[in-house]
Amino acid sequence: MVGLDIAEVIGTIAFALSGFFVAVRDRLDLLGIFIASFLTALGGGILRDTVANRVPVTFSHLFPTILVILVLLVSIFLKLHYKDSIEKKFYFIISDSIGLVAFSISGALVGIIVGFNVFGVIMLGLATAVGGGVMRDILLNRIPVLLTSELYGSVAIIVSFVVYLCDLYGMRGYTSLSCIFFFGFGLRLLAYYKKWHLPKIG
Hints:
By secondary structure, the protein is mostly helical. It has helices at about 1-25, 30-50, 55-60, 65-75, 85-115, 120-140, 150-170, 175-195.
């Protein structure tokens, strides 16, 4: 499926980049940077494929790992780690938001392909979108972004549900998926800059 492949590539590149920024910010060495980027970019997909009872794509194809390595090499070549804190924060939010929405779409599509119901599709989209970031943050002894950032997980749930609805009504084409992507990306950025949060108890 072309839409799934495109979402996978976009999500991998974006999350590899956001993992790179987090690793640089925490002053990890080269191996640490690779592990952080690898987990961020591919951890959610591994979790998704395991739940969907599929051989993880990362373990059956070299392309995802090569893509992560290329992103790291380009980032180092362009000296993105020397950008000041404001620029780095901007790049991180953009790349992380792109990865979040792209992997929400790809996770939801896999859920649809394997025949999950609406709950399964949403949960698989959520797991794909946030699973890698949660693994990275736990490894780095940080509170996962999922639990603190503005509507982070909520955006993944909304995007996954909209993908399910589009499939239900026969509108799972490239155009509709592109519209969902830009909708989710815009919603995430709007939530971040407007500081929207779900209600808290206590």
